[in-house]
């Protein structure tokens, strides 16, 4: 197994349902802002303190709305034809987080006075962030402070904060000032202002700020309403670019005062522009009337349902249990659910990768949600349909037919100026097609195929048929040249193995979709075919391309070459590369990287996971043995796939060690870059390591198949999967696995290759080492 150049120590105590910080260290603030981020898929916020911090402390304050972006021109050192013209960057919106505390004029700050007690806790089960501080001011006043916040999972526009203060050794005046700051900026890529305040207004305890992006034309509106301790008035005022709401308390020693802040956020994407202010004011005021208790109860009920379907229960390792739940929580917080948005590489936890959506969604995020939240998966696929016209435009830009989905995007258009790291990765078309197939297989939602899926499949198949050619020197086989597979260290190669296999799958899936459409929805099919100008000759061409697809294989080595040139590149000992030069993309010139047999992330090995029924176990082992020593894992997407495939071929130590890296990548700050935002695809990969790796779950031909194993350090694990209207619980113990059908009609599954029928109410037990 590849050596990893890391000496990792745990940062947070091992608690199965919580992440806790017990000491404030300014040096770690940047990282902790990512870890203590919360969200609901529509909006998210970093774990920045309510009272703020001075500029000397590393910090990236951030509140984001999924899919809301600013554009900026791409400036090329040397422009080449048909390059993308504009970046898209997720913006930092109006800052509604601020609550300042003053004790008879002395302002609370963790960097002044004395912090006697400090604890910040992210409650994963409830989706609640709390912070408790006992603080002594420079003049000796001692106070107990608590801050709480949640972003509602049942109302996408709503967030709620609460601040409570209790004097411990004095009686006197305490002032709480809530602010809404319109003068915000981005800190990465577009550095500086992206929003201009259009208007701000405040009246009594409520107010709103309407802002507009400078280029992209988005309007964002934030409204707030407040409630305070009985008898305390909240007085608001609108300043030039901010709102300020003040509540003044006269508290006796030991008496508690509180301020609750109800925040509503909307944009012109979902609310009529002329009604933005009215919407957020009404929404915030109604929330304040409902109160914290009612809103939080609804939020917690959603969280309970989420965990009931999604949670993996792991016995014997609280550190890994914590990692799995943290990952599942952050994925929920960052994934769009409206059919118009997706999930960014850093989710809604940071600005790096500019809020762009990648193929990560289809290959990692969708498998995570598919078997627990299938309705959410449909929404993610609906997003791909919503940008189909942009994909058509992108295909035309590349002089291709049909639709070519872009590599980095928010609005559907390519947002990367480096074509060798973006446009060259045509395989995203097939990744989307594959995700559609897995969704249909798991849900039998043929209406999605009718309304959206078939059109995507037809247009991506068109692209493949036009992109490749029948090459005489390859025996007349259909070849796809100048592309790149998942391994971004080998751009512009011919016949990338992953790409060719997946393109063949895409073509065959389009042909299958035609059969289903003709059978189930003939009228809608013929209307779609007419609208797309699909001719019979085109289907025949797709069939020919698929049948004659060139599929690389080297008889002598018994492996599938990654592309036509990989075997001829310079050999290199990856373990001899100094650890300070990893990742290579930041330290080596591209030409240096490209000339070696170096792999950034799983490529052929990923293919053999996705299309596992097309390869023998011997082939999988041979390819793993060949490519694993050559893989740097410079992408966080890679270790989970190697863990899954190592489990399948019986390399149990490899499987466990790669899983360890995946499960706590952000919690342990494995790559020292968590401050930029969490790694969402890697997080989803940790779930895949358990379910697809150690439990060996695969879905082929509409049947779930399991090959369970239990790592030596664990006592057991359990998870649930939804499949075709059923919910199955799988519990893996020391020497046996128990299958329980929780919902739906009886179903047939496979255990170690042998069919097993599970009926409602049954608890079927099978030995792990036997059929």
- According to CATH, what is the class of the domain at 36-309? Mainly Beta
* Side-by-side strand order of the widest sheet: 1-9-10-11-12-19-16-15-14
Q: Specify the biggest β-sheet.
A: 9 strands, antiparallel
Q: Looking at the structure, what is the overall shape?
A: globular
Kindly, what is the distance between the CA atoms of the first and last residues, rounded to a whole number of angstroms?
29 Å
Number of helices: 17
Query: What structural category characterises the helix and strand content?
Result: alpha+beta
Q: Return Rg in Å.
A: 27 Å
Helix fraction by DSSP (H/I, runs of at least 4): 25-40%
- CATH topology of the domain at 36-309, by name, is Beta-galactosidase, Chain A, domain 5
CATH architecture of the domain at 36-309: Distorted Sandwich
Attribute tags:
single chain, Beta-galactosidase, Chain A, domain 5, 30 strands, nine-stranded antiparallel beta sheet, Maltose phosphorylase, domain 3, 771 residues, five-stranded antiparallel beta sheet, alpha+beta
């Amino acid at each position: 197994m590849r050596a990893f150049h890391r000496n990792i120590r745990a940062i947070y105590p091992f608690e199965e349902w919580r992440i806790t910080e017990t000491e404030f260290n300014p040096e770690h603030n940047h990282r902790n802002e990512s870890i203590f981020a919360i969200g609901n898929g529509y909006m998210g916020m970093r774990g920045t303190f309510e009272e703020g911090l001075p500029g000397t402390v590393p910090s990236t304050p951030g509140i984001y709305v999924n899919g809301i972006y600013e554009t900026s021109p791409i400036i090329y050192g040397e422009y080449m034809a048909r390059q993308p013209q504009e970046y898209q960057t997720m913006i930092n919106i109006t800052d509604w987080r601020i609550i300042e505390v003053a004790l008879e004029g002395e302002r609370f700050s963790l960097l002044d006075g004395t912090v006697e007690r400090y604890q910040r806790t992210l409650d994963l089960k409830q989706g609640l962030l709390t912070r408790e501080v006992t603080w002594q001011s420079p003049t000796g006043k001692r106070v107990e402070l608590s801050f709480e916040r949640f972003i509602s999972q049942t109302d996408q526009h709503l967030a709620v904060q609460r601040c409570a203060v209790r004097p411990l050794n004095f009686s006197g005046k305490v002032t709480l000032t809530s602010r809404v700051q319109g003068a915000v900026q981005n800190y990465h890529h577009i550095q500086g202002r992206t929003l201009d305040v259009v208007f701000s207004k405040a009246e009594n305890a409520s107010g709103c700020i309407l802002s507009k992006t400078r280029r992209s034309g988005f309007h964002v509106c934030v409204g707030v309403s407040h409630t305070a301790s009985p008898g305390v008035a909240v007085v608001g005022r609108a300043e030039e670019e901010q709102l300020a709401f003040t509540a003044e308390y006269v508290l006796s020693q030991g008496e508690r005062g509180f301020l609750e802040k109800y925040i509503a956020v909307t944009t012109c994407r979902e609310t009529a522009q002329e009604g933005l202010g009215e919407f957020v004011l009404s929404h915030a005021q109604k929330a304040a009337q409902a109160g914290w208790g009612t809103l939080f109860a609804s939020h917690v009920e959603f969280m309970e349902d989420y965990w009931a379907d999604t949670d993996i229960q792991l016995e014997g390792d609280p550190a890994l249990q914590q990692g799995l739940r943290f990952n599942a929580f952050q994925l929920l917080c960052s994934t769009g659910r409206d059919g118009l948005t997706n999930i960014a590489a850093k989710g809604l936890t940071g600005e790096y990768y500019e809020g762009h959506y990648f193929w990560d969604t289809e290959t990692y995020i969708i498998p995570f949600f598919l078997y627990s939240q299938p309705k959410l998966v449909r929404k993610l696929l609906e997003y791909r349909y919503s940008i189909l016209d942009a994909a058509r435009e992108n295909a035309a830009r590349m002089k291709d037919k049909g639709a070519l989905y872009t590599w980095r995007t928010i609005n559907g258009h390519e947002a990367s100026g480096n074509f060798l790291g973006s446009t060259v990765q045509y395989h995203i078309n097939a990744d989307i097609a594959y995700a559609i197939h897995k969704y249909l297989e798991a849900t039998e939602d043929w209406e999605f195929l009718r309304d959206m899926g078939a059109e995507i499949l037809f247009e991506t198949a068109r692209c493949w048929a036009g992109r490749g050619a029948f090459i005489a020197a390859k025996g007349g086989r259909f070849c796809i040249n100048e592309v790149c597979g998942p391994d971004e260290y080998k751009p512009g190669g011919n016949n990338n193995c992953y790409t060719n296999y997946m393109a063949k799958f895409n073509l065959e899936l389009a042909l299958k979709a035609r059969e289903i459409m003709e059978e189930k929805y003939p009228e809608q099919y013929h209307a779609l075919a007419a609208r797309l100008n699909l001719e019979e000759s085109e289907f025949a061409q797709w069939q020919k391309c698929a049948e004659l697809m060139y599929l690389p294989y080297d008889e002598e080595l018994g492996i599938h070459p990654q592309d036509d040139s990989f075997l001829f590149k310079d050999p290199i000992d990856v373990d001899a590369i100094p650890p300070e030069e990893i990742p290579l993309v930041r330290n080596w010139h591209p030409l240096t990287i490209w000339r070696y047999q170096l792999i950034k992330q799983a490529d052929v090995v990923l293919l053999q996971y996705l299309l596992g029924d097309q390869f023998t176990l011997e082939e999988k082992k041979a390819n793993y043995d060949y490519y694993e020593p050559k893989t740097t894992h410079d992408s966080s997407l890679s270790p989970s796939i190697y863990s899954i495939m190592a489990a399948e071929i019986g390399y149990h130590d490899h499987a466990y060690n790669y899983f360890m890296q995946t499960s706590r990548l952000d919690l342990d700050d494995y790559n020292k870059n968590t401050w930029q935002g969490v790694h969402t695809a890697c997080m989803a990969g940790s779930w895949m390591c358990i379910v697809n790796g150690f439990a060996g779950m695969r879905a082929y031909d509409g049947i779930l198949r399991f090959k369970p194993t239990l790592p030596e350090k664990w006592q057991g694990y359990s998870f649930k999967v939804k499949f075709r209207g059923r919910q199955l619980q799988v519990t893996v113990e020391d020497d046996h696995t128990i299958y329980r059908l929780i919902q739906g009609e009886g179903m047939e599954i496979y255990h170690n290759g042998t069919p097993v029928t599970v009926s409602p109410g049954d608890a079927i037990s099978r030995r792990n080492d036997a059929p």
